[in-house]
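Tokens for chain A. Residues wanted.
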């Protein structure tokens, strides 16, 4: 079989005018994903040097929704972009070493950009589907690779900037940057390709990320989680192995501050002043749903053990060996009036799968930090 050359590809759809436009949209998606990804990463750091604000309570819901929407929209855009620029793969290297070297470096950066982009989008999508078929930590890998991808993207944009600028200034049907033999009309026009790219990007975002958008959550093909109270259940009490302890008559919630410990039954909690707040669970995997939570304000429990304001507070679950087994609330979250030890969801006793006997619900935190089946609250020093 003969290896094709760049000139074997004759479709006029494979042009810089199309590549620059699809590339621009792809760049916007990557930028949104990067910014919102950094927010999500920082939100999950324990002992944040500068705590994120607890208000508005829906902020993380929006940023993480945007993150997943931008990532899924980027998938069809990347596929179309790769198809458009595919002939470049067969460009020969210049003969002169002095010219070949920069070209080789540039192509190397594209190879890094393409491969990291594919890994980022693929692992992100599997994460939305709640499928973790790998042995490494998704969060730290996704985070580290983002910097590799962005570095390669900056090199790529810097090299291409003159062509991109020029191509964007002209009409999409302009042929000034086309290869001479790329004249064969395609099945659709160049505008048709752009329309296809735009609609498939929006459709992908809606289909796969719709779990975050109120009202269209049912369209979310890739997040079919079971629900109770209309709120998805990410991990059931059974699969977390907590059913026996969570339903035991011996259950106690321990609140610890230094040498002071209070042990409370669920009835003790029910007897305390109850408060209600509407707050979302916003999962890193992309879905989010608001519920009306009722229960005891965390601050009231901290008062029981004489804890001063301004302290970090660790919340532990009956469940161990899980990313959600414990979480540290920064002082502004621990002292927030809306941070509850929830006993009730939408007017009904919390179901076992949503964290019975008691769960943490705080404003504006990633879902993974809304600990279920809470057994212990510790005021940190
Ligand atoms: N103990 C414990 N708490 C947990 C989890 C868990 O696996 N174990 N999952 C977390 C995640 S990832 C999310 S998104 C929310 C989901 O809450 P829900 O199942 O009540 O909707 O709970 C969080 N709390
Ligand atoms: Mo989650």
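Reply:
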């Amino acid at each position: 079989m003969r290896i094709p050359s760049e000139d074997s590809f004759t479709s006029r759809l494979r042009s810089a005018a199309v590549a620059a436009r699809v590339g621009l949209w792809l760049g916007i998606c990557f930028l949104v994903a990067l910014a919102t990804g950094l927010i999500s990463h920082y939100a999950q750091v324990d002992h944040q040097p500068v705590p994120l604000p607890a208000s508005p309570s829906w902020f993380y819901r929006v940023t993480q929704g945007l993150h997943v929407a931008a990532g899924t929209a980027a998938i069809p855009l990347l596929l179309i972009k790769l198809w458009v620029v595919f002939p470049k793969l067969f460009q020969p290297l210049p003969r002169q070493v002095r010219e070949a070297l920069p070209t080789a470096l540039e192509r190397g950066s594209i190879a890094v950009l393409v491969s990291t982009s594919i890994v980022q989008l693929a692992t992100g999508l599997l994460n939305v589907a709640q499928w973790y078929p790998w042995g490494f930590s998704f969060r730290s890998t996704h985070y580290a690779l983002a910097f590799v991808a962005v570095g390669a993207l900056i090199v790529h944009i810097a090299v291409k900037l003159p062509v991109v600028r020029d191509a964007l200034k002209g009409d999409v049907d302009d042929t000034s940057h086309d290869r001479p033999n790329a004249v064969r009309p395609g099945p659709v026009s160049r505008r048709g390709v752009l329309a296809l790219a735009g609609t498939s990007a929006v459709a992908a975002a809606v289909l796969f990320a719709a779990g975050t958008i109120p009202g269209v959550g049912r369209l979310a093909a890739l997040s079919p989680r079971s629900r109770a109270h209309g709120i998805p259940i990410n991990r059931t009490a059974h699969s977390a192995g907590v059913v026996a302890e969570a339903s035991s008559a011996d259950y106690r919630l321990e609140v610890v501050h230094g040498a002071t410990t209070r042990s409370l039954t669920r009835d003790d909690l029910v007897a305390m002043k109850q408060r209600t707040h509407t707050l979302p669970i916003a999962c890193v995997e992309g879905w989010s749903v608001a519920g009306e939570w009722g229960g005891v304000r965390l601050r009231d429990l901290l008062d029981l053990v004489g804890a001063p304001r301004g302290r970090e507070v660790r919340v532990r679950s009956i469940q161990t060996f899980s990313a959600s087994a414990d979480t540290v609330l920064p002082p502004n979250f621990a002292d927030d009036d809306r941070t509850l030890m929830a006993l009730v969801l939408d007017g009904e006793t919390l179901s076992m799968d949503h964290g019975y006997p008691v769960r943490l619900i705080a404003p504006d935190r990633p879902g993974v930090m809304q600990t279920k089946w809470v057994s212990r609250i510790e005021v940190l020093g």
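The CA atoms of residues 69 and 205 lie 5 Å apart. The chain has a mean pLDDT of 92.
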